Structure formats: structure tokens, C-alpha cells
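Protein 1 of 2
SEQ + STRUCT:
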Amino acid sequence: MVTQWGVRRSFGANWGVDLNDLVARFPRVWHSTFPKGWDGIQKSGLRSTTDLLASAGREGEVKAVRTEPVSVSTPDGEATLRNQVPNRKEPGPPVDGMTVEDWWGLLNGRSYLFTVREDVDAFVDACLENGVAQEVITFDTRRLLTDLEDSIDVATTAAPLYPRTTGPSRGAKAFTPLGDFTGLSTKIKEVSVRTTIPVSDNAVVAVVTREPGAAPLRLFPPRKS
């Protein structure tokens, strides 16, 4: 049998997927960050909010909701953390099996990657409409995530969003370990990684800065003089 991933499997087995399957479906993934974010990522990789707060000596903020972007000073320089604005006025009812504070802590403990170009474009466009510049990094999925397979989760809904369901829908089960995912690959909207992602130049396809009202400007690879 050939699965939706294009990988030959045997009938009757509860097969998950692996990195090869992920790469076949999503050869490119994207990350969007605030201006100067690329500088820090070049130095120390793609790091979770939890890790950045710990580096700044602000561990106590890991489970606190951020209503506005927050700047933190780390040994590798300044980093800006995104605000967390749930799409429900009261996020408590959708959270299952943990407190709302623990849910924020769960979200903060990972780095996020878009799997669909249109989704990152829509996100960046929304930022630009609010006057907020962004740096968009395009990664080669295999080169970025090789050796990190055991730390990869996938999700069918962007983690901070709360689906319009009547019962609890957010919690640890919102993230599925890559090897346990058996759904349709077309349903995957987000990849997250539970550890720091080392970023080498050969894993980066391009870095582009987007300013409101301005044409995109390539930051990496540098243009030849």
C-alpha cells in the first residue's frame, strides 16, 4: 500500500511517519521572527521562549501570558518574544488536563515552524498591517531537522488557536509526536520542536526582511558584490 505520504507501507500496521515522510511532504518550512531575530538565530540556533527566558534570568515568566511583545536580554543579545493573544476571551474551558498557566508553559517550551507558505505569508501580512516588521526564514527541512526527529511534534491546528468546539480541545494532546501521527499529511499545519534547533548556513534557503510599505529585502544569503 502507498500511503498519503507516498511511502510504501504494509496493510494492518498502525504506522506513524518519520523525517523522510515529513521531508517528502514539506521540503521547506518557515519561521517568522522580529527584526534582528536572525542575528540571534545565527549565533545560538532557534530557541524556545522558555530557553530564552532562562538565559535572561526570567524563568518566573515562563507560564505568564504576554499581552504585548516582550524584549529579553540574553548573553547572545536581545530577543523579542511574541505576545500571546488567544482567539477566545476566556481560554480556560478549552484547556484539558492542565491549568491555563501550564498550557502557556507547554506552548513556550518549543520552537514553531510553518509548513505552508501561504500561512506564513498571511501571518506576516497581518503583522505588517499592524506596523510590525518581520524577518522570514526559509529552511531546508531535512538539513534543519536531521538528528532532531525524536523532538519533533506536529499539529493540525496552530497551537495558540482554540478550535470552536464545545468541549476541551487544547492540552498535551494538541501536539502529536512525529512518529505517532497517522492522519493525512495535508492536515498538518505546524511543526514544533522541543529542543533548541541548531541552524547551519546550509540549512537556510533564504532570510528576507519585511518592512511595512517597503519591498522585501534579502538578508541571507548575502548578495554578491
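Protein 2 of 2
SEQ + STRUCT:
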Amino acid sequence: MIYLDNAATTYPKPEIVYKELDRANRNAFNTGRGSYKPAREASIIKENVRKKILELNNINKGNVVFTSSATSSLNDIIFGINLKKGDCVYVSPFEHNSIIRPLEELKKRIQITIKVLPFNNKTWKLDIEKTKDLFILNNPAAIFISQVSNVTGYLLPYNEVFELGKTYNSINILDASQGYGIVKINDYSNINYIVFAGHKSLYASFGVAGYIKLKDDIIKPNIFGGTGSDTMNPNMPCSFPEGYEAGSPNIVAISSLNVSIDWLNQVKVFEHESNLTMYLIEQLSSIKGVNVYAPDDLSKIFGVVSFSVDKYTSEDVGKILDEEFDICVRTGFHCAPLIHEFIGSLEYGGTVRVGLNYFNNKDDIDTLINALNSL
């Protein structure tokens, strides 16, 4: 099997992750709930991972909150940042349903306004002048942008938008689910929250994700229950991170993240994936009838490449690649409802998406290209 669906979850994981999952599953104890040695050791692992998450991006000050998924993290943020009736929220056309759907639900509840940032669908560049005009007419209360598009691998210019938004005191949320730990965030001065997903670019298991709170703005908790602290208080504590991690944490998944970060610090994942991404685009572009969805500046694509094939739906291509060549790709709309009109892939039923990782190589891409040439 050739696995090319790493934008959904990285596979395989580093061997050290599998070993740690086995160890943790056999020796899992609840953190923050006991004073005995194994429970204390589990708590130490959890706190160490918080520090490692920050160190991955040289963040000096921030609160890391663990959740079960990036979707859960974004729900916590969207329903916790106290948006009010009439507030205007901005998203890019590249955003995932883990942002779009909670915002639409909030729109039903309190009548916020949701606007899409103006990107040119030919060059994919942000129209900064139009953005300035939009912000003057409708001041941004919050801005949501992905670091890396889960459909196209596009590296979005979030710094430009966040810097402009801060002149209106916007709350800026960076969805780094697709790239955290690999794609560096060079400037986080205008970011309020960064969302990460353990099972993707961090090469850990399912069940651990979270967000980093970088500013002093207030967020309301959305889940209420036991935290292992301040037990006699019937109200949820407001301290970070304890007041935002109700229930028993997934220490097994957190333990996998503990060792996967160590592994990430020892290998050159970004360089390897960048080279493979360029090679894949080059090879796909050489096939007649294959349409690659990419901006003018190919250096802005990382790790994920989407394409379509003339006379085939994306689902048909994926089925052929699976059944005849044992190649795993993702097909369809990829939980991103706005992007397909933007890039023009609706007529193909979405795109065929190739997600690369550190364990892929040029032979995998050559096998894919040979398969596509046979269509």
C-alpha cells in the first residue's frame, strides 16, 4: 500500500510513537487525580508536553490547553471568546468546517455576520486594499485563518491580515492543524490563539489536540466538570489551563505526543516534504488532462497537492487508484465548503488530494504518476 492521505492523518507514525503508545496503554494513570507516584509521573508528562508545544515555535509565554481534537479546540474558542450580536467575523475561502460550522451555529444563535476575505482566485493572493475597505465598513471582531490549507497546501498570508485586524482589536485565531511543529510561525505577536492537532503534522496518535492562548483576553469555558482541583467550588475555575480541561485527559495520546515532538526535533521534515511537494507538482503538471490546483507562486504550497483529471470525477479517480494500484488518496470536498468554487473544482466533485509526509519518497510519487498515466 502507498499511503498518500497524510493531510487526514500522518501514517505511519515514528516507531518511537508506537512503542510509547504501548507503554502508556499498559501504564496509564489519571493525571491530577492522585498523589501516588504513577499519577504524579503522568502529570509530569502532561506538563512537559505543554512546554514542548511552546518550544516547538519558540513561544516564550502562552497557555496550552489540551482537547480531544482541533474541532473541539475551535469550538471552545468560537463559543468562548464572547462574540456578540452584530459582530463581524472574517474567514478565508480556505477554511475547514471545524470553523465554518460553529460560526454558522453562532450566527443562528446571536446573529453575527460572517464575511470571506478577498483572495484572487487566479493568483490566490490576498487583496489587501479590498481587505482594508472591508474592515473599515465592517470592523473585524474576530479573524479565522488556516496556516496551511488542508485542500491545497497553500501557505496563507495570515500575518498581513492579523496585523491589519489588530488595529481594530480583533481576536485572531490561527488554525495550524495542518502544519504545527513543521511549518514555523515566525511572528505570533498579532495572534490570540493557535490551534494544533496531534495526529497530523505532530505525528502523534488520535485523541490529542489543543490550542495555545497567547493574549490576556477572556475566554469562557464550554465544558464543565471535574478538574482535580478546587473541588469544593461548584463553579468552574477560570484559571488556565485547569479550568478548560474538565474530565480525565487522554494521557495515552498525550504520551505519544511527548515522544513525537522529540522525534520532530531530530529530523528535517519540512525540507523533505517541501522537496517532495515540488517534485509531485512538477510530475502531475506533465500529464495531459490533469489539472493541478496551485497558485502562481509554487513555493507557497506545502505538503498537500490537489488535482483533477478530465473526464473523471474525483471519486472515480480515487476508486481506481485504490482498487487497481493500492494507492490511498483522499477525494471529494475535504470538509472545506468554500474552496471548491474558488479553485473551480465543483464540476469534478471536488479534488483528488495527495497529502505527503516524512515517510513518503519519490518512488511513491512515481508510482502515482504511472497510475495516472494509465487512465
